[in-house]
């Protein structure tokens, strides 16, 4: 098959899929795992043919693959007055796999067990600090 014939074949196949995208999305909805099997071309090249719910399902499947199945916990201790820098220093050399572990935060020189509340508070403080103009991570704009 020549290069032009191959391109024509791909174009014709895309046109066929485009005209039958409702049926394709129904098939995917009934068996979402086909996106990881024979229908992976829709993820690789023709993502726009997929309906939102199928894209969402695929996204969730990929996230589940990344999630660690173990019960490891990543512990960090930060000073409440220096959350941004302390967090950065403790997390910057962690491996990707370690960053998927459950996170447990402790504030330095404070009592308490982290059962979610301390980590939630850490996220709130950290997100505020990220937008601190002194760090110059973001620029303000006239339109924003």
Compact overview of the structure:
This protein is 51% helix and 8% strand. With 144 residues, the protein is mainly alpha-helical.
The first-to-last residue Cα distance is: 54 Å
Can you summarize the main beta sheet? 2 strands, parallel
Strand order across the largest sheet: 1-2
Mean pLDDT: 85
| SSE sequence, one letter per element | HHHHEHHEH
Apparent shape: elongated
Strand-pairing-aware structural class: mainly alpha
Number of strands: 2
Question: What is the C-alpha radius of gyration, as a whole number of Å?
Answer: 23 Å
Tell me the number of helical segments per DSSP (H or I, 4 or more residues long).
7
Portion in beta strands: 5-15%
Helical coverage, percent range: 40-55%
Output the keywords.
Hect, E3 ligase catalytic domain fold, two-stranded parallel ribbon
């Amino acid at each position: 098959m020549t290069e032009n014939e191959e391109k024509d074949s791909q174009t014709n196949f895309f046109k066929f899929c485009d005209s039958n995208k409702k049926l394709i999305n129904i098939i995917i909805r009934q068996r979402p795992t086909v996106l990881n099997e024979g229908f992976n071309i829709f993820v690789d090249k023709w993502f726009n043919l997929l309906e939102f719910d199928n894209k969402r399902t695929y996204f969730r499947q990929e996230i589940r693959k990344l999630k660690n199945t173990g019960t490891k916990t990543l512990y960090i201790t930060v000073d409440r007055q220096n959350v941004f820098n302390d967090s950065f220093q403790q997390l910057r050399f962690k491996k990707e796999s370690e960053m998927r572990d459950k996170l447990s935060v402790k504030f330095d020189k404070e009592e308490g067990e982290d059962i979610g509340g301390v980590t939630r508070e850490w996220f709130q403080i950290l997100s505020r600090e990220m937008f601190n103009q002194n760090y110059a991570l973001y620029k303000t704009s006239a339109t924003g």
